[in-house]
Structure formats: C-alpha cells, structure tokens
Amino acid sequence: MKKRDIASAVIDYTDYPNKGVFHVEETGEKGYVKNVIPGQEVLFRVTKKHGDQVWGNRIEVLKKSPLETRKELCDHFGNCGGCLYQTVPYEKQLELKTEQLQKLLKPILEPDSVFDGILRAPREFGYRNKLDLSFGDEVPGGPLNLGMHKTGTRYTVLDAESCVLAHEDLRTILSAVRDYCRTADLPFYNKLKHLGYLRYLMLRRSETSGEILMVLAVSSQMKHDFTPLVEQLLNLKLEGAITGIHLAICDRYADALLPDELHVLWGKDYFYEELLGLRFKVTLFSFFQTNTKGAEMLYAQVREYLRYGWKEENREDPGKQPVVYDLYCGTGTIAQIVASEARQVYGIELIPEAVEAAKLNAEMNGLWNCGFVAGDVPLLLETLPEKPDFVILDPPREGVHEKALRQINDYGIRHMVYISCKATSFVRDMIYLRREGWQVARYALADLFPGTQHIETVCLLSNRKPDTKVRIDVDLEDYYRIKDAKKN
C-alpha cells in the first residue's frame, strides 16, 4: 500500500482509543483505522505509511462485525460517528472498553494493583443533558439541518432529530427550532465564505428538575424577530420545561459558540442540578458533566477511593481528616462531594468564571471548608496556605503538566486519586510518577458515554516509600507503543 490508496481490510482487534488493527498476511503490513469494531470489513484511504506500518481513514463499513447484533436506532448511524457501538449489545460494549483499557494500562500496573471493574452507566440511552449543534446542510443546496458534523468533514451537517443519546425533550426542541428556521427561510452561516446567519444551538437540561436552557447563536449579518419561535417553544409538550431562551451574536471565525453579545429572549440563564445530595447552580456556559447520573457514579467512586486511601494511611488515628487539593477542579463538584471527608479542600481551576461558580455553590451547600483559586495549577500550587495530605487530579485531556507532577511528588503525600478522560495521557503521566515510587493501588473504569468509544478511568495511586525515590523503569517498547497511541 501507499499513501492515498483505497483498500479494504478486516479488523482483527481494537486498541485504545478505539483504533482498529488489521494485518495483511501477503505483504506483512500492519494497519490502523479509527472508529471501527473488531470483525468489521472496512474500506479505507491510506493517509500515512512508514515501513510496514499503514494508517488510514475509514470510508465505509463493507461488512458488519459478528458483534453487531442489534438494529440501528439512528438515521445517521455510521456517518455521524457519535455512537459507534450502537449496534453492539451493552454488555459487549463494556467488554470492548475494558479490554482496550486493560491492554493500555498493563505496562504501568503492578502485580497487586486491584481492578474494581467497570461502572455501568445508569442509563444507556437519552442520558445526554447537553447538546451543542450546528446549522448547515448535508448536500449543497439541500434542506437546512441542525445537528452534528459528518465524520471526517468540516462542513457537512447531519440532522440530529433521531439522536438516541439525547433526552427526548432536547430532540423535540431541536426539531421545533429547525422547522421554524426552514419555514422562515433563514440561511445558515457558511464557515468557508463567512457569510450567512444561523450558526449554533446549545441546549442543556437539568436531570433533577427538567428545566431547560437554550442559546441560539447567529451572526450579525441579518436581523430577525424570534418572538414567534419563542411562543412556539413555550407551547411545546415536554417532560420538563423551558426556563430560559437566549440569543447569542457570534461573529468570530472560530468554529465555537463564543458570544460577542448575549440577549435574553425569555426567562433566566441558570437552573439547579443535584449530585449525591448536593445542589449546584448551572449557568448557560458553565462546565457540567453531560451525563448527570453517570457523574454521580464516577464521583462516588472518587470519594470511596479517598476514604480507602486515607483510612489505609491513618489506621492509628482514624478520626484525623486530611487537607485535600482538588486540581483542575472546574466548578468544584468533586471538591464539594469530598468535603465531608476532609478538614479543608482547596480547588484550583484556570477559568475564573468556573471558580466563581464553585464558590457560590459551596456557599449554597454550606461547605465552609472549601476554598477555590483561579489560575494555572503549576503556578498556584506553592501559594496555597496549607500543604496537602491528599490530592485529587482531574486534568484536561492533555494530562498534567510535568512541573505540577514534580510539585505534587515533592509534598511527600502517600495517596492521590487521578481521574482521566484520556487514558493515554494518564499512562504518560504515570511513566514519570512510577519512577518516583508511585503505583496504581486500585483502579476502575466508568462508562459515562454508552454507545460511544469514550471511557473514564479513575485510579487510587499510592507512594509506599515517600521518603525514598524509587526508580521503576518502563520497558522502552511499551513506552513507544504508548507514545504512538497518544499521537494517533
């Protein structure tokens, strides 16, 4: 094979993050194609070739996998790319994800590392409490669509009316907005020409109360009175209720909902959500897990690992409570959920708006032992008034800055919890931490996104010799395999 060739292959197995692997016996070549299922025969275009290694982009599935025993539930299954595992029974989805993660994590685990299993999502469908949608068309000159981009494209938009991951209320609103804009003959914003009007629709829903917030984003190239749309939306038959409708003016070239202006069309700009008995104020653009019940499951595991690690460390003084650092804390949900286990919790988050939300939520929940600071984690670690006894890390996909890892290690603590939404970044960070004596004591997987290839990893890390630097070498072959998995 050579670059730009089109070929077909049967996928032998998948590596994290759902990268299909195939072998060509005749030539001895080994290939990789993303977004596939073991056993599928796929057509792909070669994008890169290095020696006998081939990388390709999937064009289409020629033959289904024997694992795909369920009917398709979405009109755009296979093209959207959002729920790749939709046709695979849920138990088998969990097995696939577990196999991928176990294989990836194996080089950084110890013989006595305890696997606590994969946490099942409380709900397989309709769990998404937030949708970020784009206006566009599927074919040039075709009808206006409102949905997600087709896999591998920047401009093709597939309608999301039949998306089974979204709550039914959100799908109903999506359809109403799309139909209104079609009837009003409003043009969508062309990202290539930077011309047009309709750009995005954001919807978010409270699992607890059913309250729904909406932001319709448009350019300033036109003016339109959306009063009739507001009236239509407020008369929709929903399980919950719309409590805020907003119009955002977005003229930036960036393909993201970044308002230059924000106008209230009706209602308020927040609702309240509950997690594990605590109440959180969620605003239009504040970060909150897109699967509320799944987040409860994940955060309960974090709290359990904190209890376990601290109890193991303080058998002689069981009443002692730790000072906890919650790093990359977002709006402080984890900090507040573990506050009952701590004497004091300090949260650090880069985004100032998220920190302000964390402070307000902690005050609302009566958690006076929580403090939050806005800034970059490596720069602020040395400024906090107390050193930690326990650290919780929930970094962005890129993982933890090495400077921050060094600072955390120098505290001499015995335990910390690491939550990862991108396991290859976690493995990279563990290569450093292992050389400083850290080990994975216990770990679990959390399936917050059924039907998709995504999976969360939560680990309790222990440093059994904090006063002695224990260098543990990682096999170089495993290291480069991990590095390659991160790159691809």
Descriptive terms for the model:
single chain; 488 residues; alpha/beta; 8-stranded mixed beta sheet; 10 helices; 23 strands; globular; disordered C terminus
Please characterize this protein's 3D structure.
- By secondary structure, the protein is of the alpha/beta class.
- Helices cover 24% and strands 31% of the residues.
- The protein contains ten helices and 23 strands.
- The protein has helices spanning 90-105, 168-183, 227-234, 292-313, 333-337, 352-364, 377-380, 402-410, 423-434, 476-487; strands at 6-10, 13-15, 19-24, 29-34, 41-50, 53-63, 114-119, 130-136, 145-149, 157-159, 198-205, 211-218, 241-249, 261-267, 270-275, 278-283, 323-327, 344-349, 370-374, 390-393, 415-420, 438-446, 456-463.
- It has an eight-stranded mixed β-sheet, with helices on both faces. Strands 10-9-8-11-12-13-14 form a seven-stranded mixed β-sheet, covered by helices on one side. A six-stranded mixed β-sheet has the order 1-5-6-4-3-2.
- A hairpin with a 2-residue loop joins β5 (41-50) and β6 (53-63).
- α9 runs antiparallel to α10.
- The longest helix has 22 residues, at 292-313.
- It is globular and about 70 Å long.
- Residues 466-474 and 479-488 have low confidence and may be disordered.
